[in-house]
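Researcher: Please generate the 3D structure of the following complex. Treat every line as part of one assembly.
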Amino acid sequence: MSEEQDVITGIEAPVYLKYNFTAGAAAARFLHQIKKGVLTGQRCPSCQQVYIPPRGSCAACGCPTEEEVEVADKATIQSFTIVTIPIPNNPIQPPYIIANLVADGANISFLHLISECVNEDVHIGQRVQALWKPEEEWDYAMDNIRYFRPIDEPDVPVEMIGKLPVTGWEGSADD
Amino acid sequence: MTDIAIVAYQQTDAVSDAGAVNEVELIIPVLGRVFEQAGLTNSQDVDFVCSGSCDYLQGAAFAFVLGVDALGAVPPIKESHVEMDAAWALYESILKIRMGHAESALVYGFGKSSPGELPIVLSQQLDPYYLAPQWIDAISLAALQARQMLDQGLVSERDMAEVVARSRNNALNNPHAQLAGEVSVDDVLAEDTYVSPLRKADCCPVSDGASAMIIATVEKAEEWGKPYAVISGIDHRIETHNLGMRDLTDSLSTRQAAEGAGMGQGRVDVAELYAPFSHQEIILTRALGLGEETSINPSGGVLAGNMMMASGLSRVGEVFDRIVSGEAERGIAHATSGPCLQHNLVTVLEKA
Amino acid sequence: MANLAAVVGIGQTKYTTKRDDVSIAGLVREAAVNALQDAGLTWDDIEAVIIGKAPDMFEGVIMPEIYLTDALGCNGKPMLRVHTAGSVGGSTALVAASHVQSGSFKRVLTVAFEKQSESNAMWALSNPHPFSTHLNAGAGGYFAPIIREYMRRSEAPHDVGIKVAVKDRLHGARNPLAHLQKPDITMQEVEESFMLWDPIRFLESCPSSDGACAMVIANEELAEQAPKPPAWIRGVAMRSEPTMYAGREEVSPQAGRDCAADVYQQAGITDPRRDLDCAEVYVPFSWYEPMWLENLGFAPEGEGWKLTMEGATSLDEGGDIPWNPSGGVLSSNPIGASGMIRFAEAARQVRGDAGAHQVEGAKLALGHAYGGGAQFFSMWVVGAEKP
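Model: Done. Output below.
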């Protein structure tokens, strides 16, 4: 080889693939309900635990779930993190709090944002409630709930998180 | 080598679009049926679980993680996964049993190809620097192979159409088939060319679906008291990815796998061959030296329905069904992966 | 009942942010050739290849074994691709071992890799789906709340994670292959590093690396003829549980406890801290060291952090049970390979071949990997002596 060649350290080969994503039967029913402003889980026929968002099965028992159960839009913080880096392709600006929340009437947590709070004061066991978008903006989407915000209710003891009835938390200020 | 018993096999229907079901919803019914067939409840009743799936079919990472939700894996189970057809999950499970760390296993595969364009998706299996950026789809590569066959006089279009017609007619007896019918060779030949020289009928359909199997040691199968067939051999071989270096009109790795699996040690009554294109069934039949005494793809094969990641295991299941029903005494099942039959697996099944 | 098997060759690449001097094939081949050289073997001596990596979306190559066939000398041989999320490097080693332990093969090659620089792993892990909240902030966002719950329960001092971050980087500075080379790192530097996912700081997180790791595993007869001391496989175990179910113990998952109990039982280990000489454990975020110390039975529940703070896991402090002498995942993280690196580094220790990060006289070592939402576990115990 007479001429000296540049070293090639990479090539651009973008991959574009299109998918028509389907939500799944259980998730589709959940999305129909959340479009109406209602959170709906599914109860396992075997262990009686309520899953939200539902996936059509109880992961613990491996059996199909069908019974639909409405849960509250009040929830308890199971744990959380304050994120200081942006999520790729997401408009939410850091720092923001994402939390594992268990809705009253459900037995398993889901992920959502916490806002209208002092970040440093957020804690495990804290009570929060959904702030919904205006009704005319509701779609088949979990972000019909803009975020959850703290409410003036006593903290839930850790051993009670994930075990509250749909009627909510009646703990006293002594707890 | 320890013989392995197949105790149960179930699959979903092969359908062009399974609709609004997620992975778990696709798997759960078929797992329920396969456990019932074996007289078991859930994955707690087997010693090992192994699955096959591919994230890119649906375009979401970790498809198999969601699959675990279908298993009843509390308390935790011994479980593994291959990003391959579930026929290779069967292979891994057999090793696990042969090393004495399990007496039984659940093997399953699932794929929902309908959300994407499968032939295009599969182009991204190719060498990422030279081939993938050219987006050469899976059908075009098979068409290159068919063209070589035709030009060398190794097959005629009529030979290929005969494969299709036999598949459609055989599939009339397969309740899970996606494509079946009283189709004649002339009907096929009357079709327009799709990707030259292939007609659409020469290409397998794209199917959503899942299949599941329970295997065990022969002792365990006896204990369970269910009818079973025996896997007497299994082997798989891969060959070069460079299509220009392969003789595309033959399948060397299939022949090597069949030798390794001991196919030649007896008569082959039935062969289920994973041939996504009609001419590939002819390549495989010749590579394996199968003759008149062998019934080839009595289920219709994957030309009747191709559940990606599950159809290789289904081939084993189809032979199992025929041996247990007494229709056959000995048979082979073949699975493939990669462009133009690059990677091939052969299982030999025998009457218990 | 399983046939004996041993590691007779180990090969790794130098771990770094971007290996732009090699292709994916070049990267895996480099590790494989190093393993063959270490074993004094050639490609013809290998009967099968077992390859693992994390999701295909990391590099955008679907089922990469198909393209890597030639680079790994597989033509005419069996080649199997394992994928069990982050634990895959460990699981791949176990599947490779099963080829030999089943008596089906005499000698196989196993390779695991990730070339993270060729794609965007954060994107692949947080790949937005319609219908969901789009809140998936990568692995750190998932594990930070779990770490916070551990801190609440154990009442551990706030600087345990900082101490682990320093300790593993000091270990890494002894290992020329480690990605991060920080021989002068201090507690203060870690504490002052950017808070990414509170309570996880930047320097308490693993880097993103390119790299590959390979091993040759042989049966008893061939292992005894190997030029270098073999690392005998004394126990192998895998466990899985679902990502989410009501009442799931996320801090100390049952799958991890069960997996450890299984592998210890096979290796005749009753007290892991006493019986093992060192451990290579998958710690991608510093707080996972105290968490896994408890999960793996090295310390009672709630007290794992005490071992860390006492220096028990530190080579530099002369600890009795060094964890991650190679520098661990906190020093190098080619995701799909990270589990195999743990398994291989455990084997290097018992072969007495770990160079400047050798734990003196190591005879029995644990290799550990986990993946998914801390739900997939794979482990092995390797020993200098034949069982």
